[in-house]
Amino acid sequence: MMIDRRQWLAGGAALATAFAAAPLMARVSPARPIGLQLYTVRELFAPDPIGTLEKVAAIGYREVEYGGGGYDKMDHAALRKAMDRLSLKCPSIHVGYEALAADLRAVVRMANTLGADTIVLPWLTPAMRDPQVFQRAIGDFNRWAGQLKQAGLGFAYHNHDFEFTVKAPDGRSLFDMLVADGDPALVKIELDLFWTVAAGEDPKALIKRLPGRIYAYHVKDRAADGRMVSVGAGTVDFADIFTLNSQAGVQHLYVENDQAPAPYLPDIKASFDHLRRIGA
After folding, report:
1. Is the C-alpha dihedral spanning 23, 25, 28, 34 positive or negative?
2. 25 phi, psi to nearest 5 deg
3. For 75, 79, 192, 269, which has the most beta carbons within 10 A of its beta carbon?
């Protein structure tokens, strides 16, 4: 087929435009999918889960982590269908200690339906923060993690501040106990950066202590007065922390703000936009 001069010029111009646009696309695209812990928008999610997922996806989030909002009682197949339609993935879900102890097989079924690969224990009651009780709980973590591995799933523990501030009689913190006595091949960490900083810990020093053990970050910012704020509105230097992502072994970044102000969506959009700007 003969190509005349006008066609050749038009094709060349289109190709030049594509090459010119490519660097811009590479610059604005995040290095990895940015996730959202849905607890942040729990007040929206509980009455309208599908609509909330649609709004989250429209902002640009491509991963979600379920937690709160009554998701454990919902139709997980319907949630999965909506996520597939919206190109959302659910790498991990939060499941409480009691639910893990009561019926691990039900947790596995829920994770499989939602497409999750990891179960995260998000919280321990004050009664379980006694060092002796916590030590026994670590045994449960190891056991559950082994059983979950047989089912093709991982296990991680999500920290708050008390793991660093509560000390055993031997001077070790609960976090020290978890790192030392949790099976490093099975028990990973979902490192909440806000609570780590709130406890007076240096996140980078902590990451260097735990090479390969950090499954995910909860990315939430902290104002100088201690308030939770949208990512980029506080004092945490996430760009600096993220230089250690490879050393940490981190696979996912989940935005979270337990105290996001209504109507919630502007807060999570501001966090998403900041993470994209810093190339997270």
Report:
1. negative
2. -60, -40
3. 192
User: Count of CB atoms within 10 A of residue 258's CB?
Assistant: 15
Q: Are β-strands 221-222 and 89-94 bridged in parallel, bridged antiparallel, or unpaired?
A: unpaired
Structure tokens at 48: 């309208």
136-159 mean pLDDT: 98
Q: How far apart are alpha carbons 81 and 105 in whole angstroms?
A: 22
The residue whose two tokens read 């001069």 is 5
Q: In this structure, what token pair is assigned to residue 44?
A: 């929206």
Nearest-angstrom CA–CA distance, 268 and 62: 13
β-strand pairing of 221-222 with 228-229: antiparallel
Helix, strand, or coil here: 239? helix
Residue 55 token pair:
């709004």
- Complete domains list, the chain, with CATH: 34-277 (3.20.20.150)
Q: How far apart are CA 147 and CA 101, in angstroms?
A: 12
201: closest CA among 189, 212, 186? 189
* Alpha helix stretches (DSSP H) within the chain: 5-28, 42-45, 49-59, 76-86, 97-102, 104-114, 131-150, 162-165, 174-181, 193-198, 203-209, 238-241, 245-248, 265-277
Tens of pLDDT along 158-195? Answer: 999 999 999 999 999 999 999 999 999 999 999 999 99
Q: Residue 153 corresponds to which tokens in the numbers above?
A: 């799933």
Note the pLDDT tens digit of each residue in 214-233.
Answer: 999 999 999 999 999 999 99
68, two tokens: 């709160």
